[in-house]
Automatic annotation (TrEMBL):
Residues 16-421 form the Glycosyl hydrolase family 13 catalytic domain. This is Alpha-glucosidase. The gene is malL. Transmembrane segments: none annotated. Belongs to the glycosyl hydrolase 13 family. PANTHER family: ALPHA-AMYLASE FAMILY MEMBER, NEUTRAL AND BASIC AMINO ACID TRANSPORT PROTEIN RBAT. GO terms for molecular function: alpha-amylase activity; isomerase activity; oligo-1,6-glucosidase activity. Its EC number is 3.2.1.10. GO terms for biological process: oligosaccharide catabolic process. SMART domains: Aamy (SM00642). Keywords: Glycoprotein, Glycosidase, Hydrolase, Isomerase.
Length: 546
């Protein structure tokens, strides 16, 4: 790692560590800091530039850690602050930068501030959104907003007041009009930057500022849509006032050398709206979620890539590519069913669409090809843990083990996100596949019985495995693509997209028939074995001019 290199984030490959499910060092069946430390060499060998760790703060786990009780400590089940600092130092020694997850839209209901608010201590309710209810006796919620997880976005306390929570009742929304809230979060950022953290992923970065007076939304149905769908005009999301917060955060980041960085999780209706978060005095990068929602169709892929690049270019920001994360169906499964002609919505993925049986063989072929497209594009790329193993979504979890609040809050109609959060298989043994230090431990979500073949150990020794494809791709990316500049589309037969950057080309075939590859270039890497002069369906290839 070159610490002085302040532009590292513009081309970085960042690995997302979902800490509960990455590796368990103390044998309790839940991933932790010790487990992550023990696997840092794995990540260094994979070749990533940085890791982003999902929330690791003390939490009652109403939403898997996105309900934070103390922003300056480590969840006891995950370890201690001293271990966290050791992890940051060890990662840096291996050349891996460390990004944390900041959750500024809401705290846990167990956070000291909310406890004070619940006890109605003077001024404490002003840090949240408390209101009287509607109706003659105040027994109706103050407005018609729905929680992202289902049900009303308001909960009533015993004294009759209601508080706002856009997510679970255990995640009360903070009032960002209160200057105390702003000061506190700038201080939390500095707390972690002082401990060597290189940046933050910002949770629900489009959510903190609410429309004046918390007005009803015009279309209450659109409030109930999943996080992934855009909500144009909803007063809870993407309000212009949020940008002022980020101008303040940027000045905090600029106090450090090299400058610390931010990546926004902002589900907004258009790339133009997203680019507003990336103006030069605001955030550095933002996930380009249309790429994650794109079906396996050449024409949609090309449009999504074009739109993202041109919108980011208007503000001079690098586009940021992501194929999946801990909130959406895993890539293999997304690509293992028939593909629509439009962007995929997660509600749809988890609902009606799941009636179709998945073909994981095709899903894996496509996921491997998609990875080569992602890693050849200009800008930065995020890899969600288990993508490098081509793990599929676990869609047959028994209802009684489900943990995602979506399941309960949706009235048991939406199974939620547990299926993409299953503990990783490390060893080619029986369950728990080396995930935990104690082989008799019960993992916090059960693993499927057939994952030995997808384990790190099984894939390590197989030259054709997805793990080794990722390792080769990340090595070659530095040579072929990292500094290759702008993208130029090549003309291709229908069902195929291809682009050139510098001396390298990336071709991907989403169609049904094989297509010839240009004779003037040689194959550097292919997502399937045996690709030389023609590109089979569901395959991608990296070429270099001869
Ligand atoms: C987005 C996070 O990625 C998701 O897991 C969480 O449930 C919500 N924000 C609420 O914090």
């Amino acid at each position: 790692m070159a610490p002085a290199d302040s532009s590292w984030w513009q081309t970085a490959v960042v690995y997302q560590v979902y800490i509960r499910s990455f590796a368990d060092g103390n044998g309790d069946g839940v991933g932790d800091v010790a487990g992550l430390r023990s696997r840092l060499p794995y990540l260094a060998q994979l070749g990533v530039d940085a890791i982003w760790i999902n929330p690791w703060y003390p939490s009652p786990m109403a939403d898997a850690g996105y309900d934070v009780a103390d922003y300056r400590e480590i969840e006891p089940a995950y370890g201690t602050l001293a271990e966290a600092q050791a992890l940051i130092a060890e990662a840096h020694e291996l050349g891996i930068r460390v990004l944390l997850d900041i959750v500024p839209n809401h705290t846990s209901d167990q956070h000291a501030w909310f406890q004070a608010a619940a006890a109605d201590e003077p001024g404490a309710r002003e840090r949240y959104h408390f209101r009287s209810g509607r109706g003659p006796d105040g027994s109706l919620p103050p407005n018609n907003w729905q929680s992202v997880f289902g049900g009303p976005a308001w909960t009533q306390l015993a004294d009759g007041q209601w508080y706002l929570h856009l997510f679970a009742p255990g995640q009360p929304d903070l009032n960002w009009d209160n200057p105390e809230v702003r000061t506190e979060f700038e201080d939390i950022l500095a707390f972690w930057f002082d401990r060597g953290v290189d940046g933050f992923r910002i949770d629900v970065a489009h959510g903190m500022v609410k429309g004046d007076g918390l007005p009803d939304t015009a279309d209450p149905d659109d409030a109930a849509q999943s996080l992934v769908q855009s909500r144009e005009g909803h007063p809870a999301w993407d309000q212009d006032g949020v940008h002022e917060i980020y101008r303040g955060w940027r000045t905090v980041a600029q106090r450090y050398e090299p400058e610390r960085i931010f990546i926004a999780e902002a589900w907004v209706p258009s790339n133009e709206r997203l680019a507003r978060y990336l103006r030069s005095d605001e955030l550095h990068t933002a996930f380009q979620f249309d790429f994650l929602r794109a079906p396996w169709r050449a024409e949609v892929l090309r449009t999504v890539v074009d739109d993202a690049i041109s919108a980011a270019a208007t503000v001079g920001a690098p586009p940021t590519w992501v194929l999946s994360n801990h909130d959406v169906t895993r890539t293999v499964t997304r690509f293992s069913r028939s593909q629509p002609g439009h962007l995929i919505e997660t509600d749809w993925e988890r609902g009606r669409w799941a009636d179709e049986d998945p073909d994981h063989v095709i899903g894996r072929r496509r996921a491997r090809a998609a990875a080569l497209v992602q890693l050849a594009l200009p800008g930065t790329a995020y890899v969600y843990q288990g993508e490098e193993l081509a793990l599929e979504e676990v869609e047959d979890l028994p209802d009684e083990v489900r943990q995602d609040p979506t399941w309960v809050q949706s009235g048991f109609t939406d199974v939620g996100r547990d299926g993409c959060r299953i503990p990783l298989p490390w060893r080619a043994t029986d369950i728990p596949y080396g995930f935990t230090a104690d082989s008799a431990a019960v993992t916090w979500l059960p693993q499927p019985g057939h994952w030995a073949e997808h384990s790190v150990e099984a894939q390590d020794g197989d030259a054709e495995s997805t793990l080794n494809l990722y390792r080769r791709a990340l090595g070659l990316r530095a040579q072929l693509w990292r500094d290759a500049g702008d993208l130029k589309w090549l003309s291709t037969p229908s069902g195929v997209v291809a682009f050139e950057r510098g001396a390298a080309q990336c071709w991907v075939n989403t169609g049904d028939s094989e297509v010839p590859l240009p004779e003037s270039a040689s194959v550097m890497l292919a997502s399937a074995p045996g690709v030389l002069s023609a590109l089979p369906p569901d395959t991608a290839v990296w070429l270099r001019s001869r």
